Amino acid sequence: NISGYGFVKHRPAKRGSHGASAKQLLIQMRMTMAGNFIANYKNLACHYYGKRRGLKSPYNQAMKNIMDHFVLNYDTNSIVPNYHEIGITKGNLLGIYGPSVAVANPYEVTLSWMNTGNVPADRGADLLQVVMSVDQSFATYYVENAAERQDLTVTVVTPPEFSGKQVHVWMAFVDPVQKIACNSVYMGEVAVL
To answer: How far is Cα 20 from Cα 26, in angstroms, rounded to an integer?
Structure first.
């Protein structure tokens, strides 16, 4: 019994001695890659990717979003991620206005955003969450509480293995007191020095 829903457990009948087909293996690989992708920011997704609706937890919704955008190509037997479609957080907190990303120094990514002048005083303490992924790596690097909204800029130090690679960057603000987040913003792909 989960959240008032009852389930009957039974094992499916064995289908014979032949192994999984190429399509089945590719689908299994997508599930594994999605799990690897979300692993580092799982706690963020569990709390800040929408609201629970029935059996759909925030984590399940985040995993569905990732798997929907890890596109299967059966012809080449490969998985093609649509990074710009993947969301890291989802909510109705005040969004990010005028975000930008720049790389000027080795192992550093600088993120900035604008103050619209309409930001309520209590929103200045919202915390910035940053997620990065090396192109085609299916793994992420998560920087928790990198800055406050009122700071307007932050420089994030990247791991040494990011040097010389194309890195996808997302950012989002969360309010840890009210447990709400804004919709994350995909900042694009940058070349880390």
So the answer is: 10
